[in-house]
Specification:
The chain is an all-alpha fold. The protein has one domain. It contains six helices and no strands. α5 crosses α6.
Length: 142
Amino acid sequence: MENFTPLSALAGGALMGLGAVVLLGLTGRIAGISGIIAGLLPTGRGEVLWRLAFLVGLVGGAAIYRTLGGPLQAIQFSMSTFMIVLGGLLVGFGAGLGGGCTAGHGVCGVARVSKRSLSAVAVFILTAGLTVFLIRHALWGG
C-alpha cells in the first residue's frame, strides 16, 4: 500500500460522517448522493435548494482544501475513456437497482444498522472484488 495517510483518512471519514449526521438532523434526509442528484432531475422529488447546497459543498470542500494549500495527488487512469464511461454507467445502473449508492447505504445505512443497507454493502464489496479480479487477472491481467 503506497501513500497511506491514516490521519487524513480518519479526518475525511469523520467529516463525511458529520455531514451525514447534520443532513439527517436538519432535514431528515439520508446523504445518498445518487438520491440527492435524482431529486434534481426533472422527474425527481423536488426540494432543490438543499440538494444543490449539498452538491456545491461536495465540490466546494475540495476546492477550499486546495485553496488552503492542501495537496492533491494527480490521478492516472490505466483504462480507456470508453471503459471509464462504461464503468460510470454501470455504477449508476447499480445504484438505481440497489435503491441507493455507497454513500447512502455504506455511510448512512450501516450506521443506522439497516438490514437492507448491510446487504447492499456486502454486495458492493463482493462485486467490486470480483470486478477487479476479472479485469486485472482473468480478462486483461498478468
